Amino acid sequence: MPKTYFITGIGTEVGKTVVAAIAVKALKADYWKPIQAGDLDNSDTHKVQNFINDKETVFHDNSYALKTPMSPHAAADIDGVKIDIKKIVPPKTRRDLVIEGAGGLMVPLNNKNMILDLISKDYSVILVSRHYLGSINHTLLSLEALKARGIEKIGIIFSGEENKSTESIIKKMGGVTIIGRIDEEPYFNERVVEEYAEKFRKKICEL
């Protein structure tokens, strides 16, 4: 039975797209970015395609492709459209599906809905946490928000230089699976993504 994985982060620029590529590679899954805001010529879908280079993976079209690199609700307003979550329907596939969110969980899509509203209770969620002052708070708040929606299958991937104290307290207080950590790599390419896919595959599959 195919599973759906939702990749989200504790904020923007924490490494969601790299983690999405790693998950796609580890699971031999399809990929879908429901909402792309800005960088349409070098979108997250394009980046994952370059990291994967897998003819079997299907890269599904965005539900909304917005021109401005801003919060989706603001980018949509500039484009003269309104995001309707009823039109954000996961594509049908016989393979596992990796969905990449935009920003963090509370990023608004319109006056009523947030990224969190796109996550079903049935999904497995991978939360990307990058270390900075305040990241413990943001990580634990994100976990609380997911749990409050009845989402139980949650794993964390840390991104960047190791911080043992931060990672230890998040593990103790968060009470979720720690999949692993992505080092502060000098660059990411197909080979690096494949190495992490091999390293994380077992825990990702177990979510």
Compile the SSE list and pairings:
Elements: E1 4-9, H1 16-27, E2 30-32, E3 35-37, H2 44-52, E4 59-60, E5 64-66, H3 72-79, E6 97-104, E7 124-130, H4 135-148, E8 154-159, H5 164-174, E9 177-182, H6 190-206
Parallel strand pairs: 1-6, 1-7, 2-4, 2-6, 3-5, 7-8, 8-9
Helix pairs in contact: 1-2, 1-6, 4-5
Descriptive account of the structure:
The strands form two sheets. The protein has a seven-stranded parallel beta sheet with strand order 4-2-6-1-7-8-9, sandwiched between helices. A two-stranded parallel ribbon has the order 3-5. The chain is built from six helices and nine strands, in the order βαββαββαββαβαβα. It is globular, with a radius of gyration of 16 Å. α1 crosses α2, α1 (16-27) packs across α6 (190-206) and α4 runs parallel beside α5 (164-174). It starts with a strand and ends with a helix. It has 207 residues and is an alpha/beta fold. The mean pLDDT is 96. It has one domain: P-loop containing nucleotide triphosphate hydrolases (Rossmann fold).
User: What top-tier CATH class fits best?
Assistant: Alpha Beta
- SSE pattern, N- to C-terminal: EHEEHEEHEEHEHEH
Q: Quote the beta fraction.
A: 15-25%
Examine the coordinates and then state which fold CATH places here, giving the name of the CATH topology.
Rossmann fold
Low-confidence stretches: none
**CATH superfamily grouping:** P-loop containing nucleotide triphosphate hydrolases
Output the structural class.
alpha/beta
User: What would the average pLDDT be, to the nearest integer?
Assistant: 96
Give, in spatial order, the strands making up the sheet with the most strands.
Answer: 4-2-6-1-7-8-9
> How many DSSP-defined strands?
9
Termini separation: 14 Å
CATH architecture title:
3-Layer(aba) Sandwich
**Relative helix content:** 25-40%
